[in-house]
Amino acid sequence: MDAVTDSQTFPELRTAIRQLCGRFSGEYWRGVDRARAYPEAFVDALTEAGWLAALIPEEYGGSGLGIAEASVILEEINRSGGNAAACHAQMYTMGTVLRHGSARQKERYLPKIAEGSLRLQAFAVTEPTAGTDTTKIRTNAKRVGDRYIVNGQKVWTSRVQHSDMMLLLARTTPLSQVARKTDGLSMFLVDLHAAVDHGLSVKPIEAMINHETNELFFDDLEIPVANLIGTEGKGFRYLLDGLNAERILIAAECIGDGDWFIERASHYARERVVFDRPIGQNQGIQFPLAAAYAHVRAADLMRYRAAERFDAAQSCGAEANMAKLLAADASWEAANAALQTHGGYGFASEYDVERKFRETRLFQVAPISTNLILSYIAEHVLRLPRSF
């Protein structure tokens, strides 16, 4: 057992994930990153082992595990030096179907997602003009007979080219005609094989990290009424319902990154000799790593607190948001300490630090900005006046 974390929580699960991840070296992940490719082999291996079906109930062919176990899976992927971005959406997006879908939708899609024959990894919510103000989205869906006709635009929708289905949030009632701005939004399942080039155009976005993200254009896309999830106009509530799970899972990925950075930097600091002494002997190296380690462990505790409440079906909005905030900050602190410890070598791709540095920086911005989490805490926990 290494020195970074004692891994006392779910040891058998951690061992299994580490063994699987051990088959995918840093060279594999560097190649995927360099080619801006999708980690097909890795995702296939996780799927075949059943790990991406962790949160799907056993009656639909999944493992029926809790969010805590699911978070450990993603944590260990990132801690191994990999990138769980291609995996986490497959875990939590199905929750919208599980909690709000019809019996027919659950029976039709969940078993296929569990066995890996169907991928639901794309979620189209964000728009260029609305940003985080989801109630202002302009993509609209108008019902015509047994179809909805969709027009509009989305941005930062990831993994479209590697998914069979996509969740889509669209306005079914204009904002000017609803009593509350959160009303009139609806959630749909989109069959991507039928949609692409038949009302849906996809434009990949080149980005700092390999995240397979895209801009989407809807031009009279037809969606069967049977693909509406839940009740028309209640989609915003369905969206919020899945955000706590997302926050907890992303927090776990940050913790995995933080431990990876600290472990790599500590090893390098013990071995790297300058001026006839290991650089790890210098407090200028020691203190940033020690502080980052303490902050990762603190975020880890909040992750488990949030997961405990989520699995107990208790209110956990504050805990989930704080877990994501603390973990994102801790992983970014660890990334900076690791890069500084490695010096010039930290910028060399063969050490993997620069790749992971880019990847963990995303969590300050997505899936929710740390500033918005602070606003949430201020308003909903401290009861301060709403700032926006």
Structural write-up:
The chain is α+β, with helices and mostly antiparallel strands. The protein has 3 domains: 11-115, Butyryl-Coa Dehydrogenase, subunit A, domain 1 (Orthogonal Bundle), CATH 1.10.540.10; 120-233, Butyryl-CoA Dehydrogenase, subunit A, domain 2 (Beta Barrel); 242-381, Butyryl-CoA Dehydrogenase, subunit A, domain 3 (Up-down Bundle). Helices cover 48% and strands 15% of the residues. The protein contains 13 helices and 10 strands. The protein has helices at 11-21, 26-35, 40-48, 67-79, 85-92, 94-100, 103-115, 192-195, 235-271, 283-311, 317-342, 353-361, 370-381; strands at 120-124, 140-144, 147-158, 165-171, 185-191, 200-204, 213-224, 228-229, 273-274, 277-278. A 4-stranded mixed β-sheet has the order 1-4-5-8. A 4-stranded antiparallel β-sheet has the order 2-3-7-6, with no helix packed on it. Strands 9-10 form a two-stranded antiparallel ribbon. It is globular and about 80 Å long. The model has no long low-confidence stretch (mean pLDDT 95).
